[in-house]
Design the sequence.
């Protein structure tokens, strides 16, 4: 799934199709792209295109995006 914020691609993750809104919220918080949970205003999940569009209180600083594709690390 691809996480988008204000038409900016944040990350593309491999995942199961359940709880994509929670995945986006958790990813943004744990990666440091959102400082406080209150900054997450909501999201729209489009399972047909594998996209989660998030609404944030503040724009994501593009310099904090050092990579956009993440792997699980389970295959050498």
Sequence:
């Amino acid at each position: 799934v691809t996480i988008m914020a204000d038409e900016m691609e944040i990350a593309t993750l491999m995942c199961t199709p359940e709880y994509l809104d929670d995945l986006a919220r958790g990813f943004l918080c744990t990666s440091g792209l959102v400082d406080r949970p209150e900054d997450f205003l909501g999201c729209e999940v489009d399972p047909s295109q594998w996209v989660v569009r998030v609404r944030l209180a503040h724009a994501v600083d593009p310099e904090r995006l050092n990579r956009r594709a993440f792997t699980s690390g389970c295959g050498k």
Q: What stands out?
A: The longest strand covers residues 40-46. Strands lie at 2-5, 8-13, 40-46, 51-56, 69-70.
